[in-house]
Each structure stands twice: as structure tokens, then as C-alpha cells.
Task: structure prediction
Amino acid sequence: MTGGRAVSKTTRQSGLARWQVELALRLLLNDSCSGHSLKQIAAHCGLSRSYFEKAFKVSLGTPPHRWLVRQRIQRAGEKLEQTNDSVSSIALSCGFTDQSHLTRVFGAIVGSSPGAWRRQRKASVARPLSGDPWQVAEEDGGQGRNRTTDTRIFSPLLCQLSLLAWNLLNLA
Result:
């Protein structure tokens, strides 16, 4: 000991400022076709990529990529339910590379393929995708298990941010 006080190496990570959240969400949601990288979005927010990722997770409760994938799944579910477009065209319009990519991710989150989920929704058998983009649940093939991607309880601020993101998504 050198006579000084011990300094804690842990620091409290702070989240993004409101303007940074709004800018990041706009860039992620509205400009998905322009292919902004996280490094570019972080630069727009005046942050390094690694700090941006950590602050985004603190602010929104999930890493940027996972958040964006959930938004895309939500949008794909809406299009599956509200249109007769092919799964392939829905995949491309929602930012997935192809139908296979959408099918893989949709199945992992929802528990069934997009086509099967669409047929079940039209027959009123499957539950709708939750209006909450943080939690997408679906009965797992009638086996009595419930596949839920995120069961965390979010603070009111995170709920407000989720609602803001949801509104931005619906305006696009």
C-alpha cells in the first residue's frame, strides 16, 4: 500500500442521452437499407463503437443488433399478417438477406416458420406477435412450452424508449 486510498476499478456505465437514442433509433430503423455500421452510428452520436454498444445496452436493455433483429421480426410479423406478399419479399423488405435468413431468425424467436405462423394466424390458432418489441412469445407447437425471448422487466424509462422506437418504426 502506498498510503493512498484503494480506488475501485468498477465504474458505473451510463446510457445514451435522449438525442443519441433518438438518432440511433432513426438510423437503425429508417435507414436500414443504407447499411449504417455500428461504427458509423456511434460516430454520429459522438462515441466510439464499443462505448456506443455498451451505452445502447444500458439505455435500451439489449445490444443494438439484438434490438434491431427484434424490430425486424416484429415488422415481418405485421407484414405476414396484413399482406399476402411472399415470405421472400417480406424478408427483403424487413432487412433480412433472404427468405432463409428470415426463416432461421423468426423460428428462433417465435418458435415456428414465418409461413406456418402466417397460416396459424389466419386460422386464429397462433397468438399475434406481441405489440411489445421486447418480448415475442409463441406457443411451441402445442407441446405446452412457451418460448419467450426476453422475460426481463423493464423500467418505465425503457418502456418509454421502446414505445418511441415502436412509433418511429410505424412512421416509416
